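User: Here's a chain of 92 residues. Predict its fold as tokens.
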Amino acid sequence: MHQILLIDELKRIGKNISRLRRLKNMTQGDLCNLAGTDRSYLSEIENGKMNVTVKSLVLIAVALDCGLEDLLVSSGPMSAPVQPRLSPDIEK
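Assistant: Prediction complete.
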């Protein structure tokens, strides 16, 4: 039962990453370059097949200019816009 819940969560996170990446007109390669990760690793994450680390989620969120919560929480319609976040240095 717990394994099924974990798989569902990983799939949701992967779909959120894929959706946000596409909303920003980015390829997997673009996102990998910005996040400093491997394309095959990102592909596995987006397909819900990889147990992604918190470090990777943070790097992906920064690369997508979104909050970590945007990757973790279902956001409704697939076309819903995500509000960009500015880095602390830019907000000052």
